[in-house]
Amino acid sequence: MASFVQCPKGHFYDPSITSTCPYCTPESSASIDLGGFDRAVHVESSVFTAPPRDEFVPTEPVERDTHGRVRSGTVTEDDNKTTIVKKSDEKDVSKYTVGWLVCVEGPYEGKSFVLTPGYTRVGRTEGEIRLEKDKTISRVNHFRVLYDADENLFLAFGGESGNYLKVDGVKKYQGERAELKPYSELSAGSSKFLFVPFCSDSFRWKNLKET
To answer: What range does the domain containing 11 cover?
Structure first.
């Protein structure tokens, strides 16, 4: 049974292997009896210095495929982020097409104009539809077309000007209205349009009335 020796610093070591404490000496060599062979054993002490606490970056286990891509269903850092809905992300009803006015006579013959939910105002210099080339059109609000999403209904109104709107040959003045049917004819100034619906009994935008 080996007899161990304690150094002045309290370390125990086997004097048959090394003559000095291997823990106290940074570098030392000891002679070991290995069946008649003398072999020098180099003992080198080292001190482990832990990195500063703020250098440790905890990570979540991520499962990857053979190409190094994160597998589907693996929780990543982006999954824990909260997405803030901005005003610009909200539904813009002006982007929804509900029908068209197709010019069949006048300066804009062959051109179509998009109708959107709510009122589409028609004038020469102001409104959602501007007919600048037709000098007989009132500058502001010659007439309006309304799409009622609740009723899935189209109406045309005479504008606030002294000029009138004809719907299928019937004059409509300020505040007067007429229900539009597919291919109803609307005449204003020297321009004539046919109404072409997109929303009808066959199709309507879902939840559009909630906007």
So the answer is: 5-44
